[in-house]
Every structure is written in structure tokens, then in C-alpha cells.
Amino acid sequence: MGGDLRRGGLPGGPDTAGTRSGAEPHPAGTQPGAEPRPAGTPKIVGVVWGLLILNTLGSTGAKTIIPLPRSLIQMITMGALLAAFTLALAVNLRLRIRASAFVFLLTLLLVPSMISSLQLESGFGALFRCARLALFIGTLWLLSRWWDGSLTFVRHHIRVYFVVLGSAAAGLLISPGAALPETYGGRLVGALWPLTPPQIGQYAAVIIGLTVLLVMGGRTTRGSAVMVIVPSLVLLALTHTRTATVGLLIGLALAIGSLVLTSAAARRFFAWAVLVSAVATVGFASALQAWFLRGQSQEYFTSLTGRAKVWDALLAAPRTSAEKLFGVGLGDKSFGGLPIDNSWLAVYQEQGLIGVVLVAAIIVVLSGVALLRPPSLQRACAIFLISYCVIASYTEAGLGDASPYLLHLALAASLLAAPAAAPPLPTPAVRQPPAVRQRRIPRWARR
Question: What residue numbers bound the domain in which 182 lies?
């Protein structure tokens, strides 16, 4: 897939509008008198994006083959964020940013986070998480300079998460027992880096959906797509993650549906997908049901594996007016020692009703912009990412803090950004012919 990346001029490149003196040599590939081409996205930007992904991997999960202290993992992930911010600042020293409603709303989300965290109800860790969120948002502001609606960040997203999935696959090959522990019901976990089954399922579903859209749009080869999709599907199946599977199917359906009227490839893929789904539903109904239930009872399945009890207790807990508005401060997304596993309730718990309104505004703004854009591959990718995050928000937390879900939405925002208008080329000065000196006509010749 790396060979298919086409780099073009991006907004905010080096200053190249100035004219050059006649004695100064022209840049390679530039005609005399023409403006040099603006530089594309620097390679270091991809490194920054990868470091942001590393920061959001988290530090909790199953036991690894080589025990890693949680303090060491936190040092690595926080160091990755500091490195990402430093590199982004180094490559954007002039602090050129693009207007982005998404990042602006994220910046506003810092206000209730700081107000509630200063109360120290969640301990000093809340202030640390606020600082982390501020660095995360600051890095996104610095990267917004290169958000121009291209697929560059999509490719970075796929590559980095494919490497993360590769670590999970390597752990499965090295120690199947550690990668499929009984404590997680035989579901795939990270044996080299602590990754939970929902994490692996999320990463696999996202890169599967984006790769399908890329190959449908002719932006990558089928061979490259197969190398990404097939292993990711296997890992997704081994995680038994229902949320990721449903989000992948619904997100792809909406994304492909946005291309049906303008793309013959989308129409063919949609027809084949409907046919295969019908055959699989009829022929493998029992197997699919067993995979979704994961050996759980129907009652436990309908209660969302016990999440509903935590949600009811959270909503029933007494709160002051300040806690209702601003929350109790950024924490570990848990209530009473149990994970909340719902983005909206987690935001309500930690950032209050103001946080819920701001997160809802982020989703509404991105969705509205996506609907107003003309049909395109970038719009389809954005619709897939937004749809996936909305579906996953019901059983996963993360929309109110630095997380993979915010990175998915940031990627959608970069795809929906309008390309910056190219500066007008300087009009070459037209040399006027020298004035013809008029000869004096004698008087006798004028008669």
C-alpha cells in the first residue's frame, strides 16, 4: 500500500511565493519565473500520528509473556505523547494551524474537565489526565496544518494499527495460551503488549473498513488490501467482539451507501455483500448465534454483559448541582470499581452535562459536514469512522478523553477539511517596448 501514496501540495508549506534574483539558481523541476511547488506532508507527521496512537493504547490488559510493570507502560505511552507534541512543534515552528470546529470543540471540552478536576474528587490523577488531554489537543492543532481532505492520514492510520495488530498476532504465535487466556473466556488478547479483546477488535474493524473503501476507490491494489483485510478479519473473529463487528458492518453499509449513486464499484460490492450476508445468515445461523453469545445466557446477553447494572447505579447516585454540570473530574472511566463502558455516561460522570453537550456537538458537526459534502471516497471514509464511533460509544468509553475514538474522529475531520486554496501565481511583468524617438520634422516638410 505504501507505493500507492500520492503526495500533493498541502496547505501551510514553506514560503515559496517570493521571487528570486536573476543570479540565484532555480529549484529543480521549476521553470524560470514560475513559483516553486509547495512541499507535501513531511514524513515526520506520520511519526507524530503513530506516537499519538501509541499513547492511546492504554496500560491495562491481560498478562503479557514478559511481565511489564504498569508504571513502565505509562512512562512509554506518556513519553510518546510528549515526543509527538515536541515533533509536531518542531515541524510547525511558525504555529500555522487550520480552523477546525472539531478541535475547537475539543478545546472547549477542556474547560469542564479542568473545573471538575481542580476539585480533586478523583485525586491528583485527574489533573494529570487534564494535562495529557491538553497535550493531545495541542498536537492535533499543530497537525491541522496538513488537514486538506487527502488520504495521507488514512494510510498512516492503517499502517500503524496494522503494526499493533501484528504484535497481537505475534503473541498468538509465540504463546497461544497467553494470547487466549481462560480469564477472558478464550478471547484473543495482547500477549506482547497488554491489549484487551475490545481493543484488538476495534483496531481490526477500523482498518478493515478503511481498506475496503480504499480498494473500492482504486487507491490501493487488491493484493495489498487482501494482506491487510484477511489477517485482520481472523483477529477480529478471535476476539469475539460484538461491538466492533456491528460497527464495522453498519459503518461500511452507510459509507458504501453514500457512494452507490456515483460509483459502479460500490454498487457491485453492495450487491455482493447483500448476497453473501443472506447466504451466511441462512447457512450459518447457529454458528453466528454461538459466536455472538460467546457461551453466555440469553438473559446475561440482553443485560449487555452486566453493564446495565453499572449504568443504573451511576444514574441513581446522588450529585450536587456542580457535579451535574461539570462532573467529578477525569478518571479511569469506572464507577464503584466497575468499568462504565459507555462513552456518554462516562462523560456525564467525569465532565458533567456540559461535557455531554460538547461531545454531542462534535458528533453533530462532523455528521452535518459529512452530509453536506459531495459524494467522494474521503466522505465515505469519514462517514464510516463517525458511524463506527457513534455505535461503539454505546458499549465503550473514550469520547471525552484522549483515546483511539478521538483519533478516529480527528481522522474524519481531516478528511472533511476543504483543500486550501492555492495562492495565485504572480503575474509576470510585461516588458514594454522602448519608446521610438520621434525625429524632428523640418517646417518645409510639414507643408
Answer: 41-417
